[in-house]
Write a structure and sequence with these properties.
Blueprint lengths: L2 H8 L5 H23 L7 H10 L8 E2 L4 E2 L7 H11 L3 H9 L7 H6 L14 H10 L15 H9 L3 H13 L4
Antiparallel strand pairs: 1-2
Helix pairs in contact: 1-3, 2-3, 2-7, 3-5, 3-7, 4-5, 8-9
């Protein structure tokens, strides 16, 4: 599979949004592969991680986030499950789950129902090692044009996750320890 060919089916390669998405996704892939190599003893699938990291945000064009050039009809939080739907149609069900489960540090069905989030009522939390690694790596990079290539510190990430509850910070902290991030 060629992740960039899949992305080009949905994004104009000459657009600013394509440049933002691909830059962000490449940085996430590099970080995810570095993490995976540190935990090689766990047997992560490096080829899959590289592909999934490039594709994890493919659904953003269907959302409203004009600051980066997204003019779709859905709230940004929906980009994960929308990406899942796209990749399932493309015949990549395993990659599709990474899309759905990478938002935040994962979103539970209970959170979706309690907070009345505009998402399908199901657990959207990373389950496999590869899903966790891509989700973890994604937290270090923004799609904000002014911050696109800057890697966030773990403390910055924890601070941004804190508004969603201590369990989110705890999940990220556990990944920091598990994945040997300093």
């Amino acid at each position: 599979m060629d992740p960039l060919a899949v992305i080009r089916k949905y994004y104009d390669p000459d657009s600013e949004l394509y440049a933002i998405l691909v830059t962000h996704s490449r940085l996430v892939a590099q970080k995810a592969l570095a993490v995976a190599r540190r935990v090689a003893y766990l047997g992560p699938d490096l080829k899959f991680i590289a592909e999934a990291a490039l594709l994890h945000d493919i659904g953003i064009f269907l959302t409203r986030f004009p600051e980066i050039g997204c003019y779709g009809s859905h709230p940004y939080i929906c980009h994960g499950y929308l990406g899942r739907e796209l990749l399932e149609k493309e015949g990549f069900p395993r990659h599709a789950l990474v899309c759905e489960r990478h938002v935040g540090v994962g979103i539970t069905r209970a959170e979706i129902e309690t907070r009345r989030l505009p998402l399908p009522a199901r657990d959207m939390v990373p389950v496999t090692l590869e899903e966790e690694i891509v989700c973890f790596a994604d937290k270090f990079f923004s799609k904000d044009k002014g911050q696109l290539t800057r890697e966030k510190t773990p403390e910055e990430i924890k601070s941004s996750l804190a508004k969603f509850g201590p369990e989110k910070v705890a999940r990220f902290a556990a990944w920091l320890e598990r994945f040997g991030e300093k």
